[in-house]
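lol forgot to send this yesterday, sorry. struct tokens for the thing we talked abt
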């Protein structure tokens, strides 16, 4: 499945601190973790940091202002569906679809009608201004998308190219929050389990990835991934792929240990999961 940041976490001391934070959050040792699956039409896809998107590469390693941090910018990957690249039918832009502004992104909109199966997951992002004492950012738009439980991306992967589910836009409320109802994404070959998102200054500007003020990714903690992939139906390939990667070796999160992108996740396979993450944006 691009990122601006200074190398704040690049030193050995910072990495040790990062790994300590991950461990204290209940994450399994990195040496025991992994993620992968991929687009059936693009054999073993790893996110290409040179692929077109709203940013280029993973160049931003995070910065701190006051008591909150600016989240790293990351690649939008090969499958953003934000008008910055094409699929087999031409320019792919889910942002222009009728019905794309919604909280439940498990079904397709516009002329498509499929539903993505998987373990329920609620994702809540809190937007704050890292350049202004962490003031909440109300009225900003967030476009969020991720892979299916099979590691495929709607609008791009051959099996689901006609679907546009697991993509949606929400506007942050008075608390700077947006919430999406979705499914737990699968783990495909070459990538740690993750969710993409772009932040826009307004809903009116959320028509092309070229207009965003931040592109980043949310990392899912190992403990939750292990529960889902070992116990939920439909995630068989994820279990295998998860054993072949670590957060540190991931070609996106590995640049800064993923500390500022690692969500807090609670729940269970039977009851569903909830993921929360503060997203610091310097505006």
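and heres what i got for the seq, position by position
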């Amino acid at each position: 499945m691009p990122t601006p940041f200074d190398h704040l976490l690049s030193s050995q001391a910072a990495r040790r601190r990062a790994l300590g934070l991950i461990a204290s959050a209940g994450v399994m040792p990195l040496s025991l973790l992994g993620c992968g699956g991929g687009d059936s039409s693009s054999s073993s896809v790893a996110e290409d940091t040179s692929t077109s998107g709203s940013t280029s590469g993973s160049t931003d390693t995070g910065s701190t202002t006051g008591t909150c941090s600016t989240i790293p910018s990351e690649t939008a990957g090969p499958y953003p569906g934000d008008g910055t690249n094409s699929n087999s039918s031409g320019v792919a832009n889910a942002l222009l679809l009728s019905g794309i502004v919604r909280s439940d992104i498990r079904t397709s909109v516009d002329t498509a009608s499929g539903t993505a199966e998987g373990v329920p997951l609620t994702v809540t992002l809190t937007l704050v201004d890292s350049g202004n004492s962490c003031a909440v950012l109300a009225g900003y738009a967030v476009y969020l998308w991720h892979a299916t439980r099979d590691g495929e991306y709607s609008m791009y992967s051959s099996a689901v190219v006609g679907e546009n589910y697991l993509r949606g836009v929400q506007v942050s409320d008075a608390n700077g929050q947006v919430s999406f109802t979705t499914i737990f994404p699968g783990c495909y070959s070459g990538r740690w389990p993750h969710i993409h998102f772009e932040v826009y200054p307004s809903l009116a500007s959320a028509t092309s990835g070229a207009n965003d003020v931040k592109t980043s990714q949310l990392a899912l903690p190992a403990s939750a991934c292990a529960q889902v992939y070992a116990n939920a139906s439909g995630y068989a390939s994820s279990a295998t792929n998860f054993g072949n990667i670590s957060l540190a070796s991931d070609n996106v999160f590995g640049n800064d240990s993923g500390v500022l992108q690692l969500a807090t996740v609670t729940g269970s396979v039977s009851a569903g999961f909830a993921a929360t993450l503060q997203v610091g944006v310097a505006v």
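The helical segments are 12-24, 222-231, 236-242. anyway ping me if u want another try
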